Amino acid sequence: MTSDALNPQDVWLLPGWQNSDDGHWQSLWQQRYGYQRLEQHNWQHPLRGDWSIRLQETVLDAPRPVTLVAHSLGCVLVAWWAAHSHAAKTRVRGVLLVAPGDTEQDSLRAAVPGWSPVLLQTLPFPSILVASENDPHCSLERAQTMAQGWGSRMVNAGAAGHLNTASGLGLWDSGHALLHTL
């Protein structure tokens, strides 16, 4: 995928639990590049079925195949949705999966009930998974297991926390460059 091939109207940002704040790279990408944010009905108490339906509606309503950019719980959403949607095979060009949240960890399982287990079926579209060596919500080893299960190319971002605002990534140009390599 070249930069010319990315129409901002076809790129959908999928934030995780509690949405992405104004300083998050997803919000900065939305402002800078004009990408679309998938708005969920309830950011504080996410229900997997509700979030999956919103993603399904968005993909089906899009005039052309989409590119997805998921963070944290958004990554788990993509895996679940892709395993259950026929649209995933034909309506998604690729996905950038960033800092997946391991909803099988005790802390996350309690915080976002209904999101475990994480489905580890091969995704029907190209994908890159970016993980950090010190993410409190997913160990690097677990992220490698997810990447293998999803058939994703794994990128180690080093010690970058949860790859969010607290990580100090700003516009995260290297992540944006990865999006263009799908």
Structural notes for this entry:
The chain is of the alpha/beta class. It is built from seven helices and six strands; from the N terminus they run βαβαβααβαβαβα. The longest helix is centred in the N-terminal third of the chain and has 14 residues, at 48-61. The relative contact order is 0.17. The model has no long low-confidence stretch (mean pLDDT 96).
Number of strands: 6
> What's the SSE pattern?
EHEHEHHEHEHEH
In percent terms, what proportion of residues is strand? 15-25%
Q: What percentage of residues falls in helices of 4 or more residues?
A: 25-40%
Tell me the strand order in the biggest sheet.
2-1-3-4-5-6
**Major sheet: size, sense and barrel closure?**
6 strands, parallel
